[in-house]
Amino acid sequence: MTPLAIASRPPLLIVLNTGSGRGEAADTRQIIETGCATAGREHRIYQVDRPDRLHACAREAVERARALHGIVVAAGGDGTTNLVAQATMGSGCAFGVLPKGTFNYFSRTHGIPADTGQALQVLLNEAPRAVQVGLVNDRVFLVNASLGLYAKLLEDREAFKAQYGRRRWVAFGSGLLSIVRGHRPWYLHMAWHGQERYIRAQTLFVANNALQLHQVGLPEADAPERGQLAAVALRPQGVFAIFGLLARGALGRLGEADGVLSFPFESMTVHPLYRSRRVQVATDGEIGWLDMPLHFRVSPEPLWLVRPMMAPELEAARQ
Q: Which candidate, 313, 318, 251, 319, places its Cα nearest to that of 106?
């Protein structure tokens, strides 16, 4: 499936999450308006200052983009990008990103600069290119989806950020506290490619981001570039062993660690044993409840992302 025809100078319908980044919404808006005026490009900014308004603004931007043959743009972190992408999927609209979050794995793996002015130039000058999307049940994930300890880390991180601000040291500190507190392991039945396995795992992490996988050093790092997802299951570990895994991941050597099961797949079903029928799942850092069983798969439809041909950071990570 190809995107709808876009105008020769397509307007930009931009969903700007003022909660992403570090309170730089006014500066971001000024850069967008100045850059679009200089390029003679029509645009509209949907500024969102409350999380409960994000979905409605994304839907409005998509409908407007369809009518004008324009580009839907997410200006925010990976969570904002995920939600706007979810609204864009199936619409036929092209999609763009102005990264404003803490980690921005999606934009980085596709060569989109962190600087707003430079990212805007990508939107103004590059073409839409198909990129892979992951699905868990019917929920989109662009970077990763997870349950267990990793999802708990993300839930605690957001609570800490709400109290102390959106800074990397806050994310790191909340992660340490979550690990020390511990988390009950899961008993999972996983089925993929005609295989099945029962496993006791502290967390199950499914990745759709080659850059993130390369950085932690997993052999399946290029699975997202080959039309696959990568599953990473961590068997139950003590506190010091988990710190050891974090250290290996930081050094790009997680794939060498005992207690880590990883493999590529295109479609996988996960059933929990001895747990409730619903579970908290994190998709690109956003926590939500999903019904069991979980069905992870590569979406049959790509996202048509306006991006450069080359992704320098991903290429460097492969070296």
A: 313
Nearest to 214 by CA among 125, 109, 123, 286: 109
Cα–Cα distance, 197 to 312 (Å, whole number): 37
Q: Which range among 76-80, 229-233, 273-277, 304-308 shows the weakest confidence by mean pLDDT?
A: 273-277
Radius of gyration of the chain (CA): 19
Q: Which two tokens stand for residue 293?
A: 């069983």
Whether the CB-CB separation of 40 and 29 falls below 8 Å is answered with: no
Rounded Cα distance, 141 and 224, in Å: 12
Range of the domain at 107: 12-133+301-317
**Do 294 and 188 fall into the same domain?**
yes
Q: How confident is the model at residue 177 (pLDDT cuts 50, 70, 90)?
A: very low
Provide the β-strand partners of residue 269.
Answer: 191, 295
Q: What is the pLDDT of residues 240-290, one digit of tens each?
A: 556 565 656 665 767 777 778 899 999 999 998 876 688 889 999 888 899
Q: From CA 97, how far away is CA 80, in angstroms rounded?
A: 10
State how far the Cα of 145 lies from the Cα of 288, in Å rounded to an integer.
11
**231 and 260 co-located in one domain:** yes
Contact 154, 282 (CB under 8 A): yes
> How are the residues of the chain apportioned to helix, strand and coil, as percentages rounded to the nearest 5?
40, 30, 30
